[in-house]
Each structure stands twice: as structure tokens, then as C-alpha cells.
Design brief:
Blueprint lengths: L3 E5 L3 H13 L3 E5 L2 H10 L4 E5 L7 H10 L8 E5 L4 H9 L4 E4 L4 H15 L7 E4 L2 E4 L4 E4 L2 E3 L3 H12 L7 H9 L8 H14 L8 E4 L3 E4 L9
Parallel strand pairs: 1-2, 1-3, 3-4, 4-5
Antiparallel strand pairs: 6-7, 7-8, 8-9, 10-11
Helix pairs in contact: 2-3, 6-7, 6-8
Length: about 230
């Protein structure tokens, strides 16, 4: 799946520059013009990384970063801060607020794209892999094959995409709406309860008698791929 970058920036020219270079490099993009809009976007869909400007209207990038880190569903989300403030104290403050990296304006677009790739790769080691693994479950992206232990698992197309998304983000809790946007597409209207139907199908396919359920239901929040000893049945 195409990695998604949320660009939180109020400068239209810079937004277009970032959007062009990221999409040219194979990333999907979403745009938020201020901190409040960014939090609304994050409630609807979970990107793979946030490019966050320090100097934003309404709510500063530092405060947005802190909010992201306080929320269970986004606290592990990779964040790169963009700022014209290059002093060491500002860099330290940005990193201490929860940012994973810090890029000073003006910057080289190619260097920024390289930074984005590096941060996503650290957060999601399997992003460039041909094989994704978690516990005893493995997905071969080239052969389009899923196995659990020595057993072949047969998944429909939607369940395969759903399982892949979970494998790319182990441990992260996703709401039904976030899964719909990531797996079905942001512009496709599907009832949120449809996710529950496909989760049941996925569980039926990957779990046989005696095998722990690695799809965890988080009450009032959504679903996560989690360690078997920490999972619970829906």
C-alpha cells in the first residue's frame, strides 16, 4: 500500500512543493492548513507520517505534536517537524515535544523525502519488505500468500488488504473509520459496521482451534494486531 504523509502547513506554496515531491516519490498525501484541521484529519484516517510545521495559526506545531503523542491511537505516529527556527534550543524543544526528526527551512526536497523514508522505515521495518511477519503469521507480498505456522491461510481480497494493513502497523489501534479509509479508500462510502464483518471473516480464516487470536478488539476504540497473550476475543 502507498505510504500516506499528512502535510500540516499553512504556506500554500510550500504545501504544493511538498505534495509534488512526495507524490513523485511514491507517497500519498493529505493536507491540513492548521493544527485543528490536522487533529480532525487524524481522527478520520491514520497516515504513516506527519510533516508538521512549527509556526501554525490557531495551534502551534509543538502543541499539535504533544496532542498526537497524548492520544493512544496516534502516540506512536512518526512526526517530522518543519521550521525556520534553527537554533539548538529550538531543535531540542521540538524533539522533546515528541518529534522524531527536525528539518530546518529552507531545505532540499530530495533530502526531505529521504528523511521521510528513513523515519517511516524505522517506524515500519516492513514497509519496503516483500514479506511481513507478526507472531506466527507471515504474508508473502510477491506470491500473495499468507501462512500461520505451517498452515496456508486463504483470504479474500478485502481480508488480504486488511491483514496487510495490520501487519504494516503492529500494535497500533485503528478505529472502524480509519480502517475504512485505509483499506477501502477515503472516497468510498461503506458502512462502518462493514469493518466488523470483515474482521470476523479475517479471524475465522487466521484462527483455528488452539491458536490465540492476534486481532485485539479495543472497546470503544477499534482493532489492533497485538501479541497473542494480550489479545481478547471480540
Amino acid at each position: 500500500m502507498q505510504p500516506l504523509v499528512l502535510i500540516v502547513e499553512d504556506d500554500p506554496g510550500l504545501v504544493e512543493l511538498l505534495k509534488y515531491n512526495l507524490e513523485k516519490a511514491g507517497f500519498g498525501t493529505a493536507i491540513a492548513r492548521d493544527g485543528e484541521e490536522a487533529m480532525v484529519v487524524l481522527a478520520e484516517r491514520t497516515p504513516d507520517l506527519v510533516l508538521l510545521d512549527w509556526m501554525l495559526p490557531i495551534t502551534s506545531g509543538i502543541e499539535v505534536c504533544r496532542r498526537i503523542r497524548r492520544q493512544p491511537g496516534t502516540r506512536d505516529l512518526p512526526i517530522i517537524m518543519l521550521t525556520a527556527r534553527g537554533e539548538e534550543g529550538d531543535r531540542v524543544r521540538g524533539l522533546e515535544s515528541g518529534a522524531d526528526d527536525y528539518v530546518t527551512k529552507p531545505f532540499s526536497p530530495s533530502e526531505l523525502v529521504a528523511r521521510v523514508r528513513a523515519v517511516i522505515r524505522r517506524a515500519r521495518p516492513g514497509v519496503d519488505a516483500e514479506r511481513l511477519e507478526f507472531a506466527d503469521l507471515a504474508m508473502d507480498l510477491v506470491a500473495h500468500r499468507v501462512t500461520r505456522g505451517q498452515r496456508r491461510v486463504h483470504l479474500g481480497p478485502t481480508e488480504f488488504r486488511l491483514m496487510r494493513y495490520f501487519l504494516e502497523h503492529p500494535g497500533r489501534v485503528f478505529s472502524r473509520e480509519q480502517l475504512l479509509n485505509a483499506v477501502w479508500g477515503h472516497d468510498v462510502y461503506v458502512e462502518p459496521r462493514t469493518v466488523d464483518v470483515h474482521i470476523r471473516r479475517l479471524r475465522k480464516a487466521i484462527n483455528e482451534a488452539g491458536e490465540p487470536d492476534i486481532i485485539r478488539t479495543v472497546r470503544a476504540a477499534g482493532y489492533a494486531l497485538d501479541q497473542p497473550e494480550e489479545t481478547a476475543d471480540a
